[in-house]
Design goal:
Among the domains are: 35 residues; 73 residues, conserved putative lor/sdh protein from methanococcus maripaludis s2 fold, CATH 2.40.420.20. The protein is 30% helix and 38% strand. The strands form four sheets. It has a six-stranded antiparallel β-barrel. The protein has a four-stranded antiparallel β-sheet with strand order 6-5-3-8, with no helix packed on it. β11 and β12 form a beta hairpin. The chain starts with a helix and ends in a 10-residue tail after the last strand.
Length: 394
């Protein structure tokens, strides 16, 4: 044979061997299927299991009061923030606070060297005493001049001049009183006290520095956190409902939750509504106030806000896991007495957590499928199952 013919023969023989192997594998698979009939579990996985054996889990709908909430994202803000500054110039001789300390209005925070202001007060008081003496002497002279005028011993003009001098002294005395009051006020400014109650921040100036009234940084920042405010947003579509209830004078309760929305941090009430809508986001800002007695809320903290708008009375409630959606809208599979399921269109109300209010389409105590609904169709036979029991301690 030619070399080319040997190659063709080898290729043909190789193809025949591959075909034989495939045939043998197919025959073996067929024999295994005959000797091992499919189990129920195999049928369930393949989708060929009978309708009467579809296992689902169902929960009975309940009846009760269902709160209606509006939720929004918010940021905790201090109700008031004040930068404490010195109102006089001088050396800071004493710092009486600790960083992060809670203080009350009027508590001493720091002291500026008061000696220069005490000297000014002494000068003003001395000048006041001098001018008081001058006024008293002028008044005595006036009495004497009037006596002499009655005896026609002096000219009338001298008496008039003396009266004018007394009025001048009285004016000077008023100026002196003002200078004394100003000196006393400047002296009180050397004691720097807390203008509001709240929490102090970090110290901005150390003891021994020269402070000035014009210093913009100040000594420390104090924030009022009891009570504290939260600024949050709501969609503009719900603004009319909020304003209607807000203007009625009814207290609108707020609940603050952590970033994940799981832990409740504080409870308060709506304080104010902004006067304009943010056109970029289509939301409106609202401010709530919280007592924050336990200090759970902190300035600039991110929180989730729930605002109680209404309560639906005696409404049907079911788990959100039972909700199915299709071309007809929202529906649920309701278990019938003959262990079949029926497709029930629903009119849903507000959702809160894993519960939803059903306004129409479902009655209390009816069973709705919450697990296994993806396999169901109208009228299918089902088998109700429960959760796997916990293993016993034995």
């Amino acid at each position: 044979m030619m070399p080319g013919e040997n190659k063709e023969a080898i290729k043909g023989k190789f193809r025949w061997q591959i075909g034989a192997i495939i045939l043998l594998l197919s025959l073996a698979a067929y024999l295994i299927k005959l000797t091992n009939p499919p189990t129920e579990e195999n049928y369930k996985q393949s989708g060929e299991f009978g309708e009467s054996d579809i296992a689902v889990r169902a929960v009975a709908a309940t009846q009760g009061d269902f709160p209606v909430y509006l939720t929004g994202l918010g940021t905790v803000t201090a109700l008031r923030t004040v930068t404490v500054r010195s109102r006089v110039d001088g050396e800071l001789i004493h710092v009486a606070f600790k960083e992060g300390q809670m203080v009350k209005e009027g508590d001493l925070l720091a002291e500026v060297d008061p000696r220069a202001f005490q000297a000014q007060l002494m000068q003003a008081e001395g000048q006041l005493r001098r001018d008081e003496a001058l006024l008293k002497n002028a008044e005595i002279d006036l009495v004497r001049y009037k006596t002499l005028l009655a005896q026609d011993s002096i000219a009338a003009q001298q008496t008039v001049t003396q009266e004018s001098l007394i009025n001048q002294n009285k004016g000077t005395l008023e100026i002196d009183h003002g200078l004394v009051a100003s000196a006393k006020l400047q002296l009180t400014y050397t004691r720097i006290t807390a203008p509001i109650s709240g929490r102090l921040g970090l110290r901005l100036v150390d003891q021994g520095n020269i402070v000035h009234a014009a210093n913009a940084d100040g000594l420390v920042v104090i924030t009022q956190i009891q009570p504290i405010a939260v600024v949050f947003t709501l969609p503009e579509d719900r603004l009319q409902d909020v304003m209607k209830k807000f203007h009625s004078g009814e207290v609108m309760a707020l609940e603050a939750f952590d970033r994940r929305g799981q832990n409740k941090l504080a409870q308060g009430q709506l304080l104010a509504v902004d006067n304009q809508i943010d056109t970029a986001t289509g939301t409106v800002k609202l401010k709530g106030q919280f007592a924050n007695e336990d200090g759970a809320l902190f300035s600039n903290q991110f929180v989730n806000i729930r605002m109680n708008m209404d309560t639906l009375r005696s409404v049907t409630i079911m788990p959100t896991a039972a909700i199915q959606r299709g071309t007809m809208g929202a529906f649920a599979y309701v278990v019938q007495a003959d262990q079949t399921v029926s497709v029930r269109p629903l009119t849903l109300g507000p959702i809160e957590g894993d519960k939803v209010a059903v306004l129409e389409g479902l009655q209390p105590d009816e069973l709705v499928v919450v697990d296994g609904a993806d396999k169901l169709r109208e009228g299918m036979k089902i088998k109700l199952i429960t959760r796997d029991p916990k293993p016993s301690s034995g």
